[in-house]
Write a structure and sequence with these properties.
The complex is a heterotrimer of chains A (289), B (321) and C (251). Chain A has 289 residues and is mainly alpha-helical. Chain A contains twelve helices and two strands. The relative contact order of chain A is 0.21. Chain B has 321 residues and is mainly alpha-helical. Chain B starts with a helix and ends in a 7-residue tail after the last helix. Classes of the chains: A mainly alpha (289), B mainly alpha (321), C alpha/beta (251). Chains A and B meet through α3, α4, α10 and α12 of A and α6, α12 and α14 of B.
């Protein structure tokens, strides 16, 4: 029984990671109708930024984490300006290939700069063990889940109450109307990218003490996050979060009880299974984030 | 006039091994090796362009079909001692059948979901190839794949492999031509350019997307089988997502939807690293940037540039449009 | 037996009933207009009967066959042609090729059959080209046959789409707002074309907002409002129907 609970805990950690990454992807799709194939690289670069701040510069954990988030948010803004703005008006083929090309470039640049050896980023919390009801876990996992929930709550508040957040929701529902009533569409798009990138970096700062960072980590992550977005109903953030947790738990259980080697295939299997039964996603066609 | 050019050109292509021996002695083996890869990649790129360029389905599953054909031949030839003449069609058939099976659920998805679904399938194939060690040997690779032998004909020397590659490329190019012209080509292009209108014109979009997907997948499987027959060894690293990126670069760099463009792209893509001689990682960075710039600035690729250049040359000669 | 008929056709979207139990009949050779204020469900109805949307309830019958929920390409094959509200052509193909694309499926053989019966295929193709050219001439696009459809003006593209829909000689033609977004000269041309079709005995059902056009050429008018059929009859009768007046001006 404790075995199962432990797998569930691991599943919640994975789910938190996938949910944070998938939220960024869902926001980008919801607000500007773009699939960013390079999103996993936001996580990867955020992880390296965090490693650099925490291990190389020796900054305290929270500071290093925030530094990584800030760095990636800035990167996200720059990326929107440099690449995304040009391809927003183009066909989805162009968008997909352009972001895929960016992904390849960033991944290989990371190999050149950081090498292929994974970077370990152990923190106090990733070593300290908590025991609850016969289940052993490291405190970092608790932090991941709590922080993820806090982030999602903050995001909910932001989209419901903050001016920029409300503009993002409005844009995701009806872009033309927004332009007509004077919403600065470009600014909202820019902000969405900054937020998405920041979210990915936050995920990295929280999760890399458990999983380490390496240049290829983004690729599978993009796929799984996208699977969550599809299953959750394209651009519907709450759906993506729920689907991400579903995938995380399924993957963890499969790794524990079926086969560790094939765990990476689980997200895809879940996605295809859902799509065959309900092509519009688990929660149906929703409009807006 | 054109016929003479065709005959001379074909003769020259066939005579390459001797030309190479004469012009670049000592380098002949290397040149032939590069040309064999170019021919195989060219054929693979054409099979991919059929799906992406002519019917407009952005599939990322191609590496999986290439790998399926490769593994089928590799395992049948080494474990079951099947002759090349049976193993090759088996590889093509398996790839085509899997394409059919995968296509049915995939084509229910739209656009992005389709791309991600096919990517997911490719990744799953790679994961299985890497981890099902009992069957595929996993990272230990399938070794000792025999050289092709059909009756008395044995393909073992570099020139022989070159002619095999050239023959395969010619066949695929002919097939490509046949599928993308006249009525069938029109149907494909109708689905690509305006699927809603195509349906109103009695054209079943699903049928044509599946046709291109299955044929493209089958050909990819055949090329995979030929590839491992040449290389002799097969590791799961051959069917990674990088191959999808390489194919996208070849097709978009050369000119999506154009026979000449795709072949030029494949040649440039295969020759470039040899000319540049750089580390594989830097090469991927360059490809990534190249792909990014090309898809944004020159979506017609080299073919588009060539066409614009030749039309500009022709315009001064003609008075009045 | 009516050529075309819907019974209780219903389509709902996210809680809104776009088409509400509509009964509609079109006899062979009729020229019927479907009108109604914006959002009354006309185009949705078109999409439901031409296979682009699956109806939630009801039946669609064509030439005695049940074609409810049949896929778009099969509906077209059965002899129902249509145009689209937002003019739709194949931009990269020439005007001529656009028309040829509409005919090929009706002559399509199996892949092998095509290769083996090459001379027959060539004859069919030649006949198709001739038919296409004459259709283009009849809509006044004969001189632009080789021009890529994307280079034509909006009005010319509308005429092209119209000609293309006629190419497979459909038994029923559904026109979605043929007079929309074009200048008065083009409108007159469209009216003339539709009248010619009617004289030739073709069955036409058109959706239209332009009241002049509707009143001028229709034999019969059907009025939708909020997805429901509220009136039906001769043009002069319908225009004076108080329910219709209220639907258009009452709010």
């Amino acid at each position: 029984m404790s075995d199962l609970l432990e797998q569930l805990v691991h599943g919640l950690t994975l789910g938190s990671l996938y949910a944070m990454v998938a939220t960024g992807l869902a926001l980008m799709f919801g607000v500007v109708r773009l699939i960013n194939f390079a999103h996993g690289e936001f996580y990867m670069l955020g992880g390296y930024a965090f490693w650099y701040a925490y291990v190389e510069l020796g900054l305290p954990y929270p500071v290093a984490g925030l530094a990584a988030v800030a760095a990636m948010a800035a990167f996200g803004l720059a990326y929107e300006r440099a690449v995304i703005r040009t391809i927003l008006a183009r066909t989805w083929h162009v968008q997909l290939i352009a972001t895929l090309a960016t992904s390849i470039t960033l991944t290989n640049l990371a190999i050149i700069v950081f090498g292929t050896q994974p970077k370990e980023v152990p923190t106090r919390l990733s070593a300290a063990i908590l025991e609850v009801g016969g289940v052993r876990m490291v405190w970092q996992r608790v932090l991941v889940l709590v922080a993820a929930v806090a982030i999602f709550a903050a995001l909910e508040w932001f989209v419901a109450h903050a001016r920029l957040g409300k503009a993002m929701r409005a844009m995701s529902q009806n872009r033309e109307a927004c332009a007509v009533v004077g919403v600065d569409v470009q600014q909202v798009a820019l902000a969405t990218f900054g937020i998405s990138a920041g979210l990915a970096a936050a995920a990295a700062a929280l999760v890399s003490p458990l999983f380490s960072i390496f240049p290829d980590v983004g690729a599978l992550l993009t796929l799984k996050a996208f699977a969550a977005v599809i299953v959750g109903g394209f651009g519907y953030v709450r759906g993506a979060i729920a689907a991400a947790f579903l995938i995380g738990i399924a993957e963890s259980l499969a790794a524990g009880y079926l086969s560790y080697a094939y765990k990476d295939a689980i997200a895809f299997v879940v996605m295809v299974a859902v799509l065959l039964v309900r092509p519009q996603g688990l929660f149906g066609r929703r409009i807006g984030i | 006039m054109r016929a003479t050019r065709w005959v001379l050109g074909s003769a020259a292509l066939v005579a390459v091994p001797w030309i190479a021996a004469a012009v670049v002695p000592g380098q002949q083996r290397y040149v032939l090796h590069v040309l064999i890869f170019t021919a195989l990649y060219g054929a693979l790129a054409l099979s991919y362009d059929l799906v992406v360029g002519h019917v407009g389905s952005l599939s990322l599953a191609h590496p999986a079909f290439f790998g399926l054909g490769a593994y089928t031949l590799a395992l049948l030839a080494t474990e079951a001692r099947w002759p090349f003449a049976l193993a090759l069609p088996a590889g093509i058939a398996l790839a085509a059948v899997v394409a059919l099976a995968v296509g049915v659920p995939m084509f229910r998805l739209t656009e992005h979901s389709f791309a991600m679904g096919t990517l997911g399938f490719a990744i799953v194939t790679q994961v299985v190839a890497t981890n099902w060690v009992d069957f595929t040997h996993g990272p230990l690779c399938v070794t000792g794949i025999p050289k092709p032998q059909v009756g008395a004909l044995r393909i073992a020397t570099l020139p022989a492999f070159y002619w095999m590659g050239l023959g395969a490329l010619a066949l695929v190019a002919l097939l490509y031509r046949g599928l993308t012209t006249f009525r069938l080509g029109r149907a494909f292009h109708a689905v690509r350019d305006n699927e809603t209108l195509a349906a109103a014109a009695s054209i079943d979009p699903l049928r044509y997307r599946m046709l291109a997907f299955v044929i493209g997948g089958g050909v990819a499987g055949g090329i995979g089988a030929l590839y491992v027959s040449y290389v002799g060894v097969l590791c799961p690293g051959e069917l990674t997502v990088s191959l999808s990126v390489n194919l996208l670069v070849m097709v978009f760099l050369g000119g999506v939807g154009s026979l000449r463009g795709v072949l030029v792209g494949a040649a440039a893509f295969t020759a470039l690293p040899e000319i540049l001689r750089m580390a594989p990682t830097w090469r991927m960075v360059i490809y990534g940037l190249l792909l990014l710039v090309i898809v944004i600035r020159a979506p017609d690729g080299l073919e588009g540039l060539m066409r614009r250049a030749s039309s500009r040359r022709r315009r001064p000669a003609s008075s009045g449009a | 037996m009516a050529l075309f008929e819907t019974r209780g056709l219903t389509k709902r979207f996210l809680g809104v009933t776009a088409v509400d139990a509509v009964d509609l009949t079109v006899e062979a050779g009729e020229l019927v207009s479907l009108i109604g204020p914006n959002g009354s469900g006309k185009t949705t109805l078109f999409n439901c009967v031409t296979g682009y949307l699956a109806p939630d309830e009801g039946r669609v019958t064509f030439q005695g066959r049940d074609v409810t929920g049949v896929a778009a390409h099969r509906i077209a094959r059965l002899g129902i042609g249509r145009t689209f509200q937002l003019v739709s052509v194949f931009p990269r193909l020439s005007a001529l090729e656009n028309l040829l694309t509409f005919l090929q499926q009706h002559q399509e053989e199996s892949l092998v059959g095509r290769l083996v019966r090459a001379p027959r295929v060539r004859r069919l193709e030649a006949a198709a080209v001739e038919r296409a050219r004459s259709l283009l001439d009849s809509v006044g696009l004969g001189g632009r046959a080789e021009a890529p459809a994307g280079t034509l003006s909006y009005g010319q593209r509308k005429l092209l789409a119209f000609a293309a829909a006629l190419m497979p000689d459909p038994d029923l033609l559904l026109l979605d707002e043929p007079a929309a977004a074009v200048n008065p000269t083009m409108i007159e041309q469209m009216k003339a074309q539709i009248r010619t079709l009617h004289r030739q005995g073709k069955t036409v059902l058109l959706v239209e907002h332009n009241m002049d056009v509707v009143m001028d050429i229709s034999q019969r008018v059907i009025v939708l409002d909020h997805g429901q059929k509220i009136a039906e009859g001769a043009p002069e009768v319908v225009r004076r129907d108080p329910k219709v007046v209220e639907a258009y001006f009452g709010r």
